[in-house]
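Deliverable D5.2: sample structural annotation.
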Amino acid sequence: MFKRIIKIISSILVIAIITGCCCFVCNHPSEEVENTVDSFYREEAESLDVVFLGSSACSKDFQPIEIWKQSGISSYNYSVGACSSNIYKSILKEIVSKQKKSVIVVDIDGFMVADKFQREEDPVRLWVDSMPKNDNWRSTINELCASSKLERYFPFSRYHRNMVSPHIYLPLTYRLAKKEILKQKDILKGSTLNESKIELVGTVNNSGLIAKKLYPLSAKYLKDFLEYAKENTDNEIIFVDLPKAYYDKKSYSEKKHWLSMALQLKKDVEAYGYDFYEFNTTQNKKIVNLKDFADSLHLTTTGGIKFSRFFADVLINKYHIKPTATGSKEWQAAYDEGIKILKKQVK
């Protein structure tokens, strides 16, 4: 009888160990997002002057180390690629949990997508499975993951399928364990590099355009975000439409519609007392030009450096931020290492 109990306990332990190892190897929603999130929580509480919140354009267009070099402002790029605005409020909660005094710069891209993109599960999953497991995590699951709660609470129920791709997930686990990308995120303060390019035609002029309503779900999530921010934070919040370009007639038409919706979004955020900046027009070609675009939605690393230097001046001159990292040895070290990474990328 005793031997039988020992065998049962041993079997359970073996299964638990194997499952634990499989979870460790397979439960990786996104190397990029995981490291962006982890790196943010390595920053000291109340140490950042500015935090950027948004989608992939935000992660590429703002380079915090260049902003620091230009102005002494400390910042972090807390952006989740391909996300829609349905997770913006959840990200905002995480930001203010550590940085209650920071100016928050919100990239509006997530509010400009059609409802079908707001309903997509993958961007939400990437965020929920990477974020800290706290009260905000649970409320985000209840709000956005009603049909996949089990997978969010027990992610291995989804990620077990990664076991069929050990050639991908074993190296990924090794990189995460070595913290290679995390170290780069620490240096670049969350930003992403981007130097691929496609041929573009031009940028769009918004003169004479009339404001058009946002898509229904985008309007809902914008209102939720604004009401939460107004009632629960003291942070100054700035909304920005980042530089865009077009590559054909269809793309040109889409960008004009985007700008018309941005006019409506501008009215909405200003009604709550927040500022809005439009950088997605031909009027801003002195800031960046077509050579600075990787594609119609994102700047290259070179373009991001140029735009970041420009935006640092906006922060200093318009918002009179008193930089807390001027002369910081830590930021100087990050800049020295980061500029090597950026220079290597743009060659």
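Annotation notes: Strands lie at 50-54, 75-79, 103-107, 237-241, 275-278. Residues 21-26 have pLDDT under 50 and may be disordered.
The annotation will be released with the project's public dataset once the embargo ends.
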